[in-house]
Amino acid sequence: MPISGPTRWLLRLGSLLTLAFLYFPLVVIAIYAFNTTRVQTWPPSGLSLHWFDDAFNNSGARDALWTSVRVALGATAIALVLGSLAAYALARHDFFGKESVAFLLVLPIALPGIVTGMALNATFTQILHVSLAVWTIVVAHVTFCIVVIFNNVVARLRRTPASLEEAGADLGAVPRRTFADITFPQMRSALIAGALLAFALSFDEVIVTTFTAGSTETLPIWILSNLQRPNQLPVVNVVAVLVIVLSIIPVYIAQRLSADPVTAAGTVTDVPAVPGD
Questions:
Q1: What contacts 71, CB < 8 A, 6 or more positions away?
Q2: For residue 49, what pLDDT band results from cuts at 50, 70 and 90?
């Protein structure tokens, strides 16, 4: 649809203002990471790479980073299995209460994190009587990582005709062969995209983690703990910049993998997939 020149410029201005609103605070943190002094003043008195060296040599930050990676990998692996199985069951089978099950599967990501954290903390410490550790963080993160996996996989399966699997069965393929040769290749990119998003979500999570970590320190908790320490603030800024970079990579790859290759006109393009489509 053709649009006039003023409308085009208005849309560009609106897009620019939206991007500035979203990313200007992140740019400020990135600039402060290069500040020459420990005191944050605007504009910075100078730029330096000194704090990057301190951040890379900070054992607390390194240990917290490794803990976050382990937690994110564990939560993503479990969520991949549970979320994909649930997606396949709901996309390919009809049963009583199907819509209610779908609603309950996506509900955890809509609940306030503090409520989820309180519930999990009470369950671990008062019902199960276990000590809070890395594995309790993993279990807690699985509760919302499943939603990401489920949404991606179920959206892809709903766009994949079941007739392809029926055709394979008609040709004599057993269910396992049909899944391996037809279903899995169709959902593979959705699984990878969902896993990347789940990893990024788990890696950055702090509220639920606070209630289920005990003495374990993930990278977001390390940042929160050191944010109020003036001597550590420049190092925290550097770590925050690294977290931003590490978060962008999986989200960008997931967005590319989740693209729907077919438009309404039948041409190939990159249109982001809508979870639950």
A1: 134, 137, 138, 141, 202, 203, 209, 218
A2: confident
Q: What is the pLDDT of residues 242-261, one digit of tens each?
A: 888 887 887 788 777 766 55
How far is 198 from 150, CA to CA, in rounded Å?
10
Selection from 269, 270, 237 nearest residue 51 by Cα: 237
Tens of pLDDT along 153-202? 888 888 777 666 667 666 666 667 777 777 777 788 888 888 888 998 89
The Cα 237–Cα 243 span in angstroms is 10
Backbone region of residue 15 per phi and psi (left: phi > 0; alpha: psi in -120 to 50; beta: other values): alpha
CB neighbours of residue 214 within 10 Å: 15
Strand runs labelled E in 88-188:
none
Contact in structure between 272 and 258 (CB atoms under 8 Å): yes
* Residue type (1 letter), 186: Q
Separation in Å, CA 150 to CA 40, 103, 252? 43, 11, 19
Q: According to the model, what pLDDT value does residue 260 have?
A: 55
Selected from 3.40.50.10490, 1.10.3720.10, 3.90.226.10, 1.10.2020.10, the CATH number assigned to the domain covering 49-272 reads 1.10.3720.10
Q: What is the pTM of this model?
A: 0.78
Handedness of CA 167, 171, 172, 177 (dihedral sign): negative
Per-position DSSP letters for 78-109, written without gaps between them: HHHHHHHHHHHHHHH---TTHHHHHHHHHGGG
pLDDT tens profile 111-138? 888 999 999 999 999 999 999 999 999 9
Q: Are 56 and 50 in contact (CB under 8 A)?
A: no
Q: Tell me which residue of 247, 154, 134, 244 sits closest to 198, measured CA to CA.
A: 247
**Axis-axis angle for helices 233-257, 5-32 (nearest 10):** 140
